[in-house]
Each structure stands twice: as structure tokens, then as C-alpha cells.
Write a structure and sequence with these properties.
The chain has about 325 residues and is mostly helical. Helix content is about 80%, strand content about 0%. It contains 16 helices and no strands. It starts with a helix and ends with a helix.
């Protein structure tokens, strides 16, 4: 039991921080979360996450990932074309506006910075290729998110989104810290402490919990009144991620991506980062608390689904 909790502490942390903030009758935790959010706490957390992520990215492994450009392009198509189109068609269903916005937010996000790379390795895939997809996808998201999110949201309600301002903001919050971290990483092997290499992903997970806490705090009143929608959100999140995985398997078959290369395409092409989706919900749609619920629930669900899938892929691979 302890081993299970230790291996899945982040999922328990997500559930715990949401639950504690919601049931706190004194509203103290929610008040603190609102204060941090109103004082640019979310921005500071995002900058830190991408800076520290850049520190542990290995440039030589990213360059090695360039050997499989076809796989990288397929993964990027899944991330930036298939996912938003899937969300658009699902959004035609009679869904709550807030849930639909949460779906749109998740769909336009780039791939995760850490969990997808870890799961690719666990499945026996090419970690270097997964790192390349991570860096390219998060860099391209500066341009893709403002346009794709604006197009999708306009199908729900007329929300003005300043694309230019959003692109500049994302460049400052995502690309600049990521590049700073990447270039500040020592070039000599053995200079960067192994303890930091292991500790930074754990720090980033705590920072993700912090940004979720700020979002839950800001949307507490709405979330307490939306319990009936949670089951529908869970079903929708499973359905959405299952379609992305199915599309990934289809592309892998169509383009004959072999074992050892397919894992990064499948997992990186379907996973979505949580911090940015929460940041946009907090900044652009704070009145839609259920959108935050979708972002968090989708992250939990896709980690569970992909964790199982990574183990399954590794077992099947051993048979060949």
C-alpha cells in the first residue's frame, strides 16, 4: 500500500489539494490561494516550472531526437491538429459551456514536460525523441494556442482574446524561461548534480499542485455547486483521451513507425500539459470553474490511462 501511494503521490496530491481547499469551512486556504493568484503567483509558478525543466533537458539527447523527424512531425500533428479538431466535434454535443471550454483548453495545449518522457522510457521507447517533441511542441504552442483557442472558444461564446498580447505573454512565461534553463545547464558531463536531476521533476510537480490550488481557490464557489457535472466530466475526459490514443495508433500503422520509435509518438502525441491549461483558465475564464475541473480530471485520467498503456506496451514488446 505504501509503495502504491509513493508511486502515485502526485495523483493523491491533486485530489487532496482540491478536496482540502473545497471543504475548508473557514475559507482560509481559498483566501490564501486567491491572494497568491492576484499577486501574479500563477505566472511565477509557470516561469519556474519551465526554467527548471530547461535545466534538466539534455541538449545532446534533444539533438539525437532529430534522427526521427517523421515521428516528430506525426506527434506534432496529433498535438496541434487532431486534438483541437477532436475537441471541436465533441464540443458540438449538448455540453455545459464551462465543460466545453475546459475541453477546448486541454485540446490546444502542448505535450507534457516530464510525465510523457518518463512513460516513453518506461514503455521502452526513445527518450531522446520524446525530449525533442517536448521542446518543439512547447515552443510552437506560443503561436498555436492563441489562434486555435480563439477559434474554438468563439463557437461557445464571444470572448475577446488578444492574440498578440497572449503570444508575447506566453513567450515570456514559457519559451524564455525554458531557453534560459536549457542554456544555463552546464555543458560538461558530470557537472550537473544527479540529485538536482532527480529532484527538479519532483519540485515541478509540487509547483503544479500550487497552480491547481490557486485555480481551485478562485473557483471554489462554482465548484461546490457543480458536483452533478463531475461524472460527465470524467466520462468526457476518458473519451477524449481515448480518441487521441486511437488516432496515434492509426498514424503509427499508416506511416509504419516501428517499435522503439512508436512509443514516443503515441504517448507524447496524446498527453497534454496541466500547468498551462490551469493558467489560461485562471486568467481567461475564472468564472467557469468547471473548466478547471475538466483540466485537472483529464490530467489525472490520462496519467492513469497512459501509465497502464506504457506497461502494456513494454510487456507486448518483450514477446517480439
Amino acid at each position: 500500500m505504501l509503495r502504491f501511494i509513493r508511486n502515485n503521490w502526485f495523483l493523491f496530491g491533486l485530489a487532496g489539494i482540491c478536496l482540502i481547499t473545497l471543504i475548508d469551512a473557514t475559507n482560509t486556504l481559498a483566501g490564501m490561494g486567491k491572494w497568491f493568484k492576484s499577486h501574479n503567483g500563477a505566472d511565477a509558478v509557470i516561469c519556474t516550472i519551465f526554467f527548471t525543466s530547461g535545466l534538466i533537458l539534455k541538449r545532446e539527447e534533444i539533438r539525437a531526437g532529430l534522427r526521427d523527424l517523421k515521428g516528430a512531425v506525426i506527434a506534432l500533428v496529433l498535438i496541434f491538429a487532431v486534438a483541437p479538431l477532436t475537441a471541436f466535434f465533441i464540443g458540438l454535443l449538448p455540453l455545459d459551456h464551462a465543460v466545453r471550454i475546459g475541453l477546448f483548453l486541454v485540446s490546444v495545449m502542448p505535450t507534457t514536460m516530464s510525465s510523457g518522457v518518463v512513460m516513453t522510457g518506461a514503455a521502452g521507447g526513445n527518450i531522446a525523441h520524446a525530449l525533442l517533441i517536448t521542446v518543439v511542441a512547447n515552443s510552437l504552442s506560443i503561436v498555436t494556442i492563441p489562434f486555435s483557442l480563439s477559434l474554438l472558444v468563439q463557437t461557445v461564446e464571444a470572448v475577446p482574446i488578444d492574440k498578440g498580447s497572449l503570444m508575447v505573454q506566453m513567450a515570456l512565461l514559457v519559451l524564455l524561461p525554458l531557453m534560459l534553463g536549457l542554456f544555463m545547464r552546464p555543458k560538461k558531463k558530470g557537472v550537473f548534480p544527479a540529485s538536482l536531476q532527480r529532484g527538479i521533476p519532483i519540485l515541478n510537480q509540487f509547483l503544479i499542485l500550487a497552480i491547481v490550488w490557486m485555480g481551485v481557490s478562485d473557483a471554489r464557489a462554482v465548484l461546490l455547486g457543480g458536483g452533478a457535472q463531475v461524472f460527465a466530466i470524467i466520462v468526457l475526459a476518458v473519451f477524449f483521451h481515448a480518441i487521441l490514443l486511437a488516432a496515434g495508433f492509426l498514424f503509427i500503422r499508416l506511416f509504419h513507425i516501428p517499435w522503439g520509435r512508436m512509443e514516443s509518438v503515441l504517448l507524447m502525441g496524446s498527453q497534454k500539459t496541466l500547468p498551462l491549461s490551469v493558467l489560461f483558465q485562471v486568467k481567461l475564464f475564472p468564472q467557469h470553474g468547471l473548466a478547471l475541473v475538466f483540466c485537472v480530471m483529464h490530467h489525472i485520467i490520462h496519467l492513469m490511462m497512459d501509465g497502464y498503456l506504457a506497461g502494456r506496451l513494454k510487456r507486448v514488446k518483450k514477446r517480439f
